[in-house]
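stage 2 :: seqdesign
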């Protein structure tokens, strides 16, 4: 009976495993093969290139620039979003009048598609008629070239991403806050712990996993950023906002250099995998009983 039950479980899992292999493992395998090859679209041929694509990749200024932009965007954007999400979750944790309306409005940016969100912010970023520069002029300040300045363009795209996806981090952390037993906080308050001590010594340790989950999801999503950059700046001005995803797209579908694009995709996959493994280890790590 045990053998039959095991066979049934394997039979039920087999379609999902086959679908995963067809949609995930096979493309990754093809990408690895292409990354070590010179691919000729016109002749429909492929020649083994060894490490040539990777050597060319790391000597390419455009690749290193896109990697630096991607890492800067991912680290800063995800940390800001999780930090703001934590602050909003703490504000929305306790019930008050109008809380449901604020929560409904809070998730509104998440419901917009990326192109709609980018179109809205592109109008707000307009130098002459945009909302942001109108506010700056009303305060007696000089208007800014949000999308055409090399120093501000990446920050502007980051601002759009923060506006759209901070609510997701807030909802994940808020769910973690609501899972904390009220008796724990009441006991800490009766022992004389002020709100700062409750936050630092009780709340944050208890919501470590929701915090790490929000940080993991936002880090991976920001690391593969493509759509907002493509819609807002196209990678410009110059290459100030070019990301790894945009670099891969241009190499593969604009310059038809499939080997170099695949090598860049492998590097991107390794970075994303390292991020995922690091956060997963932190989430699954159990506290040492000896520290208690």
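stage 2 :: out
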């Amino acid at each position: 009976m045990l053998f039959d039950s095991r066979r049934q479980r394997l039979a039920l899992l087999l379609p999902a495993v086959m679908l995963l292999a067809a949609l995930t493992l096979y493309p990754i395998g093809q990408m690895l093969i292409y990354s070590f090859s010179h691919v000729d679209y016109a002749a429909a041929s492929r020649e083994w290139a060894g490490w040539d694509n990777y050597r060319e990749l790391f000597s390419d200024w455009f690749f290193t620039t896109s990697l630096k932009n991607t890492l800067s965007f991912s680290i800063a954007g995800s940390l800001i979003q999780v930090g703001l999400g934590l602050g909003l979750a703490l504000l929305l944790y306790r019930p008050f009048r109008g809380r449901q309306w604020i929560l409904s409005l809070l998730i509104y940016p998440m419901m917009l598609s990326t192109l709609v969100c980018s179109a809205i912010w592109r109008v707000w970023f307009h130098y002459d008629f945009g909302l942001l520069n109108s506010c700056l002029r009303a305060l007696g300040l000089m208007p800014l070239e949000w999308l055409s300045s090399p120093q501000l363009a990446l920050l502007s795209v980051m601002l759009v991403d923060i506006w759209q996806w901070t609510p997701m981090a807030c909802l994940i952390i808020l769910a973690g806050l609501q899972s904390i037993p009220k008796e724990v906080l009441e006991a800490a308050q009766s022992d004389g712990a002020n709100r700062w001590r409750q936050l630092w010594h009780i709340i944050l340790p208890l919501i470590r996993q929701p915090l790490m989950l929000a940080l993991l999801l936002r880090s991976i999503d920001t690391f593969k950023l493509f759509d907002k950059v493509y819609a807002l700046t196209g990678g410009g001005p110059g290459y100030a906002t070019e990301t790894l995803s945009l670099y891969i797209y241009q190499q593969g579908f604009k310059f038809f250099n499939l080997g170099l694009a695949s090598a860049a995709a492998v590097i991107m996959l390794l970075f994303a995998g390292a991020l995922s493994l690091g956060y997963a280890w932190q989430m699954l790590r159990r506290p040492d009983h000896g520290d208690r």
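stage 3 :: structure notes
- Residues 20 and 190 are 52 Å apart (CA to CA).
- The chain has one domain: 50-280.
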